[in-house]
């Protein structure tokens, strides 16, 4: 159980009811935002929810590519995103020209695009993936040569599952996952020798090699709930520690490194959220011609079964 809602949080809930709005929050959002949301989840869960909700308004607490995904799959809804400047440093690394260059270099190879990218990039892609389904997405493709953008770490992790496929990747990365080093993990293991080390696939290959389990953020939440282990070293953005502790009050969670802090994920405040619900702004809108192209790639991903 979380803490009782504050007055401001109660006002937000009331406004959400009046506005027929659903509040979606990513697992890295600050605790007070997670508490007031209708649903928290990883990128895949939030995309699925955005595609299926009956609410008239989706208020997205996360980073911009996530709100864009909601606008791509739900064009008839108003997608409110309280702070437009909350971007993603990985998504910023790739431009449409980079994708065109890769397509020219590997003709016929389908482009698999991690959802952590902006709508223009999705629009020139064949299919999207998240950290929870990247392996299933690549498995579902008949081609033997794949272009994977923009995360080289997720691409290299996915490659481990395929002897018969070659994944060509763009050299983007998440600075808040790529920052985790072997030395950091060794230090954490020394301090907590009984702990299970969970890593996000955005971590470097040499860090993945040390992991006991590799999971998306919600995958880590599920794993920690179901595991018999009592202690965990968490190799992802530090915001995940809050729901981990909340769901497992009798277990211990240690950040693999305090450096794993995504500033963009902490921008939206309760005050921003309240103001956005009052004004139903700012909103994320994507041009229809771009949206239609991006939708094909996202919808194709959503058809892939989650195992
Ligand atoms: P998840 O899809 O695992 O929640 O990850 C999103 C993200 O931004 C990771 O950095
Ligand atoms: Fe982007 Fe990394 Fe932040 Fe996730 S943690 S939103 S990939 S910068």
TrEMBL record:
Protein's UniProt keywords contain Transferase: yes
Subcellular location(s) of the protein: Cytoplasm
Residues annotated for iminosuccinate binding in this entry: 26, 43, 114-116, 131, 200-202, 217
Keyword set includes Nucleotide-binding: no
Pathway involvement of the protein, from the record: Cofactor biosynthesis; NAD(+) biosynthesis; quinolinate from iminoaspartate: step 1/1
Cofactor(s) in the UniProt record: [4Fe-4S] cluster
Transmembrane intervals: none
GO cellular-component term (any): cytosol
Protein name per UniProt: Quinolinate synthase
Protein's gene: nadA
